[in-house]
Fold this sequence. Notes:
The chain is α/β, with parallel strands linked by helices and about 475 residues long. The chain has helices at about 5-10, 20-25, 35-45, 55, 65-75, 75-85, 90-95, 100-105, 115-130, 155-165, 180-185, 195-205, 220-230, 255-270, 290-305, 340, 405-410, 440, 445-465; strands at about 145-150, 170-175, 210, 230-235, 255, 285, 305-310, 345-350, 350-355, 365-375, 375-380, 385-390, 390-395, 435. A five-stranded parallel beta sheet has the order 3-2-1-4-14, sandwiched between helices.
Amino acid sequence: MGDPKGFMTTPRELPTRRPVDVRIQDWKEVYETQPLETLQKQAGRCMDCGIPFCHQGCPLGNLIPEWNDLMWRGDKSEAIARLHATNNFPEFTGRLCPAPCETACVVAINAEAVTIKQVELRTIEEAFASGQVRPMPPDRLTGKTIAVVGSGPAGLAAAQQLTRAGHTVAVYERAPKIGGLMRYGIPEFKMEKSILDRRISQMEAEGTRFRAGVEVGSEITGHQLKSRYDAIVLAVGATQWRDLPVPGRELSSIYQAMEYLPWGNMQALGEVETPLINVNGKHVVILGGGDTGADCLGTAIRQGAASITQLEIMPRPTNERPSSQPWPTYPMIFRVSSAHEEVDNRIFAVSTEKFLGDENGNVRALSLVETEFVSGKFAPIPGTEREIPADFVFLAMGFTGPEKSDLLTQLEVEFNERGNIKRDLEYQTSTESVFVCGDAGRGQSLIVWAIAEGRSAASAVDKYLTGNTQLPSPIPPTARPMMV
């Protein structure tokens, strides 16, 4: 264990965020580097609890107490070995995961949780800095070929595991560059894309082949994939965004979040001088209070918006854990992201009744009404209607499932009642040799679940192709969604 008294004598301390007035002038990550000695003291807060409930909170089954102890002791080499044993990409989860492990931390029963996420991130960054993250090519090839469609965290995890097992793996991505939503949806201030690129370079050195800019389903059909590869892994995500069909939706300058965020990333990386969607000097309204809405918020701030208002239909969460969500569950509490530190103009418990336009067909305002939850649904409160100005509106209300693309039609996969791709306990779809993992099969979820699903699907594919497998599967069969 770490410091035997650390959880009692050392208070929780996160890395310092760069000053707001400084960081909004650029697109770099918001956190400063925490001194290693301070980080080690934080790792030492991990107590020798009889049952580490952080394991229950982590879909990957990360060996959290082990690498906390190793980092506290300064054994960085063994710490990264234990971290990589369960997680292909801790540099992604250490930045992007909401850390359900921390809400399940035993210390959090009556104190502040161990900073698990920051210890994880520092462990992998120390490993990269010291050259300990090296390619791990297979000793021999099996002669089996696999196509992975989609290069988000699930697809990349499945590809890396299968490549290391000796299979020849090609990853197809319709976007110009590999990375999926991590590249085009996650703003640079949350994860700089050089972090993604260095991991892709490792995978290329291991033998994974990447095919970016390929529209699978048209440029190469599902039938061609089946004839060329021994197995196909669908990791296409749940990219069918939720819309808002209210009067005025047809007005100009109303965009989905994923139509806006890629332009912010291209601007941040200097790939475009003036993005197609640019809110400089404009009034912005964001519909949706989740992480994607916060990403739009931080992007609009850095583009120089005149004002930004974020709307959420749910009432404001409480600051403390609700009694209906006891430890060790992940509670719905009021959270302040780095973007909300910069501008926090959230309005809760409101619904958009209609968009209002000007004489040129552009949106100029939203008509809102306050709501209350009555008989299982949100009902408007009469007399609370009002307007707020809006030159741009971004819809960040989540996703409903995978797009019903030509590829899925060609592969003849079936869908369940939630609109996700059906699969059995071994991740195989209704079509022989076609597997699915991540949000496409599970539904919209967390990055840590995507990586866990990619690893588990890789284990299932390896077993399907060779009759057995030594690849780990973090999600046991009893916890997998069945084909229904």
